[in-house]
Amino acid sequence: MPTDATFILAGLFVVAAAAGWAFARFGGSREKEDIKAPISADYLRGLNLVLDRQTDEALELFVRMAKVDSDTLETHFALGHLFRRRGEVDRAIRVHQNLLARPNLNETQRHQALFSLAEDYLGAGLYDRAEKLFLQLTESPTIATRALENLINIYERESEWMRAIEAHRKLEVLNGEKSSRGGQYYCELAELARVQGNFELARQYLKNSIRGGSGALRGILIRAAIEKDQGDYPEALRLYEQIIERDRRFMVEVLSPLLECHKKIGSIKELEKYLEQLLKHEPSLQQDIAYAAVIGNFTELDIITRCMENFILSNDLFRSLVDVKAIMSEDPKTRHEHASRIADALRGLSVNSARYLCTNCGYSSQSFIWHCPSCKNWETVRPLRTFQLDISMS
Ligand SMILES: [Zn+2]
After folding, report:
1. d(CA 153, CA 142)
2. Ligand 1 centre from 376 Cα, in Å?
3. Domain edges within the chain
4. Ligand 1 centre from 245 Cα, in Å?
5. Distance CA 138, CA 146 (A)
6. Chain-centre distance of CA 255, in angstroms?
7. Which of 15, 66, 241, 375 lies at 20 to 30 Å from 253 by C-alpha?
């Protein structure tokens, strides 16, 4: 059923068409020359039908008008756009299909109608049909850029990374400038190859990702995981430390594989030294280590449990809830038990709270993502450095 808003919009459309006619009829002299006839009787009939709330009949009339009156082309595009904006995609598709059936469209008009129809298909969730039309338009002299942008969005949505790379390359040529997006697609392919155990292919994709000029941090993370998977633990450790060097927020992601690699080669004391050094230069990292330890339930190293206890027992919220003085005066074993219980509760809370945040749009999620589903930017999501509980209180 047509909505009230549709009636209003369609009414506005007809009024606008009539106003446009009146301007052309009585306005500037050049436009005046183009007017071959007084306002079309069909427009007035269309207006009546809209006012009588007979949108389907009005639509039929406008479609028929397109067949006989090429001057109404732009207004039909506007009508199709309005229908699509209102979510009445079937009507928008009918308008644009009828325009395409007109034999006298020039190339630019035909491309515009194809593009509008592809947008209708997108609106209806018919991505394969939209893709076919956008592909037809990638050679269009007028609309290729927008067609490629839409194709890239479809391929990103469907994780068609090779096709995304191809469309992205064409877009770079058209725009005459490089963009970092292509590097992200290669990272996606590299990660897929790594998970499937095809390390050689994964390395190849990573090389292309570097050439693409993007995903530096992500590339290091994938390389580190490849080295770990292949048993080159010293190299994996070097790369994981590089990630912390570049962005402290990744401590929560990297502490677990750091522990794993050190355990594999029996160098767990080295990790203790490494963390001591980090804290010496940057004491605030205690919070990051504590957060990572609580999330990952790490209790292997004294320094990690110490960070966790200090963080918990110096937290303003917990100080107001528990008798921290009494806990601190307990023997180390009892103190540790108290801290562990609080850590368990915090871990339980974190299961249902956001752990990652997009630095561009504020989108939050519980799992790590490289492509923000909200603002569509790449590599803008970062791990939080502490519990949401603290953030909401600050
Ligand atoms: Zn975002």
Report:
1. 19
2. 6
3. 1-133, 266-352, 353-394
4. 24
5. 9
6. 27
7. 375
| Fold topology of 1-133 | 1.25.40
Q: What is the CATH architecture assignment of 353-394?
A: Single Sheet (2.20)
Q: Per residue in 179-206, pLDDT tens?
A: 878 889 999 999 999 999 999 999 999 9
Q: How far is ligand 1, taken at its centre, from the CA of residue 371, in Å?
A: 8
- Segment (H or E) for 382: strand 381-383
pLDDT, position 110: 93
CA 94 – ligand 1 centroid, Å:
35
Query: Look-up: residue for tokens 């038990």?
Result: 337
Task: List beta partners, residue 381.
Answer: 358
- DSSP three-state, residue 193: helix
pLDDT of residue 38: 52
Assess contact for 312 and 318: CB atoms under 8 A.
yes
Distance of CA 56 to the CA centre of its chain: 37
How far apart, in whole angstroms, are the C-alpha atoms of residue 169 and residue 164? 9
What's the CA-to-centroid distance between 151 and ligand 1, angstroms? 20
Query: Residue 343 and residue 294: Cα distance in Å, rounded?
Result: 6
Contact 114, 132 (CB under 8 A): no
- How far is ligand 1, taken at its centre, from the CA of residue 375, in Å? 4
| Residues β-bridged to residue 357 | 364, 382
**CB-proximal residues (5 Å) to ion ligand 1:** 358, 360-361, 363, 372, 374-375
**The 356-358 sheet, strands edge to edge:** 364-365, 356-358, 381-383
Residue 103 Cα, ligand 1 centroid: separation in angstroms?
44
Question: What CA–CA distance (Å, rounded) separates 214 from 203?
Answer: 15
- Which tokens is 223 given? 């390389």
Phi-psi category of residue 385: left, alpha or beta, with phi > 0 → left and psi -120 to 50 → alpha: alpha
- Quickly count: other Cβ atoms within 10 Å of residue 332's Cβ: 9
Beta bridge partners of 378: 371
Q: Say if residue 30's pLDDT is above 70.
A: no
* Topology alike, domains 1-133 and 353-394: no
Cα(374) to centroid(ligand 1), Å: 5
Residue 149 near residue 138, CB atoms below 8 Å: no
Give the pairing of strands 364-365 and 356-358.
Answer: antiparallel
